Amino acid sequence: MTPDEFRRHGRQVVDWIADYLESLESRPVRSQVRPGEVRAALPSAPPERGEPYEQVLADLDRVLLPGITHWQHPSFFAYFPANASGPAILGDLLSSGLGVQGMLWATSPACTELETVVVDWLARLLDLPAALRTDSAGGGVIQDTASSASLVALLAAGSRAGGELARRTVYTSSQTHSSLEKACRIAGIAPGNLRVVDVDPRTLALDPEHLRSLVSADVAQGAVPTLVCATIGTTGTTAIDPVRRIGEICREHGGWLHVDAAYAGVSAVCPELRWINDGVADYADSYVTNPHKWLLTNFDCSVLWLRDRRPMIEALSILPEYLRNAATLSGQVIDYRDWQIPLGRRFRALKLWSVIRWYGAEGLREHIRGHIRLADEFAGLVAADEEFVLWEHHPFGLVCFRPRWPGLPIQDANEATIALLERLNDSGELYLSHTKDTEHVLLRLAVGAPSTGREHVHAAWRVIRDTYAAMA
Ligand code: PLP
């Protein structure tokens, strides 16, 4: 493709995206295709001859769009959001256009140095402790996902803990994201050495007293408590683990405190939400949050900060001959390849930089506050309805709730709630997901798409209410 052809098709593609974003509301939120339908509509063999780009775009409309679930739809309330925004899309496009691979400072100095600036900016925006910024012994780095970030934290924690791998223990709760269990498998933590700490049944937050007793028993047996994961905003219900009390226990035993704030962490752009990070400044060894969830930055963009980068670099740095270069050997530059699992890396900082510059701190705060207001409004509708039970804790954009299903035993009520969820999602009018407290299935409505407004939240409640009424 020549630059002139690129210019022409590039304009078509940008127009296509703008039209798509404008058309979102007319589309069913969740794709309605059956398994295999998209694949069957595509040729099984690649073309022998190149095709005009228009044909690619035509197939995008004809074949792929029906198989797309519209994450940016204003009535997408499932999971946590995966925000996209104009500046992030443009930043990603620029990154593709530059086509750099920033594994080393030397392979594109600006790719590394912009990343350093942007992760430090974000730390300031969230009022994270100065110890996590790059000028200190610590620093931040953009990862693809929080899953990778937690794995990096675990490897760094292992490097700091030392000793035999078989004696290392890790502590999570039943509400911790499954990526921690996966990280343990990858890092070679013995399956029996992953401890699942109890949660308070009312709040679903990790019980620090149970943590303390597990850690003490392990230490008495000669185990090495290596990492404790505290979550700020659990995946199920956005529970907030008591970071400070967990941190105190880590401090007593030398364990690494990893804070997973993948979804909720970005809300600390708002000063009134900074209470969520209580204990982070004093105790966190690492902290992860995902601008790709709720901060207007297209997937993928997850930021991991560490208080001390050395154990991570000890765990991950290998310098083969072909990567040796004067800048690396001078010790004056950061090579982010040592801060992540893969070698190669995209220029993700560009999209986060675009987002922060376009919205400014003010715009980012308004984005978060707007969703929290809508979530509060939705929670009010649920609370006012006697046939529904509201999960009281909803400090962010997620509201959990369930129908009472009067007269039904819990098991049947849970099945009825799942049937309601499926009927709602099949309708194409909205998309919700679910979780479970200690016994009940809860519906999850996460307000988070940039285009969601009051009308969408009220419409969602009407559909939920009417569908429930038809089933009850
Ligand atoms: N941690 C928490 C609390 C999450 O809610 C999620 C995903 O929803 C993750 C980690 C995993 O995020 P990622 O997809 O970036 O790995």
UniProtKB/TrEMBL annotation:
Taxonomy, superkingdom: Bacteria
Q: Which cofactor does it need?
A: pyridoxal 5'-phosphate
Q: Does the keyword Lyase apply?
A: yes
Keyword tags: Decarboxylase, Lyase, Pyridoxal phosphate
Q: Which family does it belong to?
A: Belongs to the ammonia transporter channel (TC 1.A.11.2) family.
Q: What is this protein called?
A: Pyridoxal-dependent decarboxylase
Which source organism does the UniProt entry give? Prauserella oleivorans
